[in-house]
Specification:
It contains 8 helices and 7 strands. With 219 residues, it is of the alpha/beta class.
């Protein structure tokens, strides 16, 4: 949660842990500085997964497989998860972790650039989880809209950039300005579009949550 570390620490202390495998995988990832979803984001996703029970999930950004395995743990045995990862050094580790988790039957990993893979997908999903290259979020949203069933969920992580999103473009480091611009475009689109009912929440590093409106409700 952005803004109050003591409050975040207290809230996170209330949550139970995950399975021993997930806890160990999370520790290993953090020890090697590989980003994984934060504790409060995990709690939010765990709630959403149990409440919605999605049958098909698309994840954009697998990293080492933690979040895909996490979603596999908290969904029904029938749920199927498709996850995409482009960073070659992490793909082999993600495949290893998925196989070791016992969820290789639920999780399908596609290696490659999501910008090339997404337009070729023709499946439909109950939920899309976006957690990849931040400068590509507007493009990911467009594809997520196409691939998400009416009434389905689109969830995007790390939308507030540790608070940098509040700053003007010129107050942000030059190397981060494109990300800053694109993330603002993404947030404006997901909250203003009549195709979604959306909220931006100060959970973790910011989560955008949108329900894709039913066809008959669109204007």
């Amino acid at each position: 949660m952005i803004g109050n570390e003591r409050l975040t620490g207290f809230i996170n202390s209330l949550y139970k842990g995950n399975t021993p495998f997930l806890d160990a995988l999370e520790r290993d990832a953090r020890d090697t500085r590989i980003p994984v979803i934060r504790k409060d984001t995990q709690a939010f996703l765990r709630f959403i997964l149990k409440e919605r029970n999605p049958g098909r999930i698309l994840e954009i950004g697998a990293a080492v497989g933690f979040s895909a395995i996490f979603m596999a743990e908290y969904t029904s045995p029938e749920c199927r998860i498709c996850t995409i990862e482009n960073y070659e050094k992490r793909i082999a580790l993600a495949v290893h972790n998925i196989e070791k988790s016992g969820y290789s039957g639920k999780i399908r990993l596609i290696s490659g650039d999501a910008a090339e893979i997404l337009p070729a997908l023709q499946e439909s999903f109950d939920m899309v989880f976006i957690d990849a290259a931040k400068a590509q979020y507007p493009f990911y949203l467009k594809e997520a809209d196409r691939l998400t069933k009416p009434g389905g969920l689109i969830i995007a992580d790390n939308c507030l950039q540790e608070g940098d999103i509040l700053e003007s473009r010129y107050a942000v480091e030059r190397r981060n300005r494109t990300i800053h611009k694109r993330m603002r475009e993404f947030l404006k689109e997901i909250t203003a579009s009549d195709r979604f009912t959306a909220a931006v929440l100060p959970v973790g590093d910011g989560i955008a949550v949108a329900v894709k409106d039913n066809e008959g409700q669109k204007t």
